[in-house]
Specification:
Belongs to the LysR transcriptional regulatory family. The structure is a single chain. With 306 residues, the protein is α/β, with parallel strands linked by helices. It contains nine helices and 14 strands. Helix 1 packs across helix 2.
Length: 306
């Protein structure tokens, strides 16, 4: 038995919570993976995983073994990566997930620079406002905004986006221009962004004199995708709150008008997020470093167009 190989196989099963998914990610037969884990359990004289027809769970002894051996695996991979990085170019496939409007307006326009710098990296870009399971979906990192509430992930700040409240000229002609946030309750129509993970409308937020207020008024329309949400505002269906970089072309062309400027929402933080128990490959390291340097520049460039 190759113990190091068996430990890595066991760790992948723990992370994937499935022998089948773990075998697929390691590109080995399921039977081979199962044999490696059984030999490791026999060598240690204890059961590491509890198998049922529906799921795989870690035993207390298995969890303790995983926690301790993960540090060893990570240290070895870091040593290998540092040596390889010194004498080779980053290569391979990098799987990234990002929200729709952020991909369209910020990341994709900047990607030619990254691709030119690292021609041996293949970028697989998943574009969706859905939150994804990084490990289960074999994603290297995600670019997300807002509050982060998963402590098992590592997050690195990459910039802040401005938020604005706006509507089309046609809408404002029909319904009037609100002078302060409370007027939105007086016959105005709101278009809310609805999150995928809980199907709830994100409340409209307003900030003035360092005081934050939220408005949970009933919306006329709820949309769960950022580009479609912007399109609803452009179509005159109602008032929207969106990123200033999304609204910039509409503001420039006159198809959108910013309202309630004195009550702008607080800035919206963005992070690049990846699992803390996954080794950072050379290609992921260079992408994160590039993103930290490039994302704020692109973000500020687009926001300055409004």
């Amino acid at each position: 038995m190759n113990q190091l190989q068996a430990i890595k196989a066991f760790a992948r099963v723990v992370e994937m919570e499935s022998f089948t998914r773990a075998a697929d990610s390691l590109d080995i037969p399921n039977a081979t993976l199962s044999k490696m884990v059984k030999e490791l359990e026999s060598h240690l004289g204890t059961r590491l995983l509890q198998r049922t027809t529906r799921r795989v769970t870690v035993t207390p002894e298995g969890q303790d073994y995983y926690d301790q051996t993960l540090r060893v695996i990570t240290d070895l991979e870091d040593i290998d990566a540092s040596l390889n990085a010194a004498r080779s170019k980053p290569r391979g496939t990098l799987r990234i997930n990002i929200g729709s409007s952020t991909a369209t307006d910020i990341l994709i326009p900047a990607l030619p620079d990254f691709i030119a710098r690292y021609p041996d990296i293949i970028v697989d870009l998943g574009v969706s406002d859905n939150h994804v399971d990084l490990i289960g979906n074999h994603v290297d990192c995600v670019i997300r905004g807002g509050k982060l509430d998963n402590s098992s992930l590592v997050a690195r700040s990459i910039g802040n986006a401005e938020m604005i409240t706006c509507a089309s000229p046609a809408y404002l002609k029909n319904y009037g221009v609100p002078a302060y946030p409370e007027e939105l309750n007086n016959g105005h129509r709101l278009v809310s962004y609805v999150t995928h993970h809980n199907s709830r409308a994100v409340p409209f937020k307003f900030m003035k004199n360092n005081t934050l207020s939220e408005m949970k008024s009933e919306h006329r329309l709820g949309v769960n995708e950022s580009n479609a949400h912007l399109a609803a505002g452009l179509a005159g269906i109602g008032i929207i709150q969106t990123f200033s970089y999304c609204a910039a072309p509409g503001l420039q062309s006159g198809r959108l008008v910013e309202i309630l400027r004195d009550w702008r929402p607080p800035v919206y933080p963005f992070h690049v997020v990846y699992p803390q128990n996954r080794h950072l490959t050379h290609r992921l390291r260079v992408f994160i470093d590039w993103l930290v340097a490039s994302f704020p520049v692109q973000l500020n460039r687009v926001q300055s167009l409004k």
